[in-house]
Amino acid sequence: MATANETQSAPLRIYKLKASDGQIFQVDENVIEQLSTVKELCQTTNTGDAPIPLIAVSATMLEQVIKFYDHQKNECQAPAVGNDNGTNGITNEKKKFDSTGEWNLNFMKQFTVADGTLFEIITIANYLGAKSLLEIALKTITGLASKEQQETRALFNTSCDSSAQASNAPSSIEKSSDIAPSN
């Protein structure tokens, strides 16, 4: 009879991913599971040991995607802390992905709007079907937009009473178009 440790330590299948610039990366099936586009490609085609070409992903960005999912894999495999009925705070459940975790926030800091890498990682995450990476990348954009909005309000010394202003905006635009001189 196999123990729990023996069944969990079964060797994982290794896949080869080929970036657009020809560099090949080896990843295990846990990473492939997180990339729905690649997973589907693996299931529908028999590539054998041949690398899976990812024509829209540079080696630099693919390396970052792999780094992200390797960390997530290790993080999510750690035991969760919670109500365990007296087993010292450790349960058998896996941790769930936390897009607001400190590691994730620090990871996203390397991607910026100025150099275009933030939009590039969003495009690549979408292309690969990397849902959790896409989630934190979009949250990063949302945070930046919110920060920019607050800085803009401070610059012009305005407050946020957008509900009243927004509801009156279309009618004020219509009124001004009625007054426009005709030729």
UniProtKB/TrEMBL annotation:
Q: Does the keyword Cell membrane apply?
A: no
Transmembrane as UniProt keyword: no
Pathway assignment: Protein modification; protein ubiquitination
Tell me one GO biological process term: protein ubiquitination
Q: Which InterPro entries match?
A: SKP1, SKP1-like, SKP1-like_dim_sf, SKP1/BTB/POZ_sf, Skp1_comp_POZ
SKP1 component POZ domain boundaries: 16-73
Record keywords, A-Z: Ubl conjugation pathway
Give the top-rank taxon of the lineage listed in the UniProt record for this protein. Answer: Eukaryota
- Show the segment(s) annotated as Disordered: 161-183
Protein family? Belongs to the SKP1 family.
What's the protein called, per UniProt? SKP1 component POZ domain-containing protein
Please tell me the species this chain comes from: Adineta ricciae
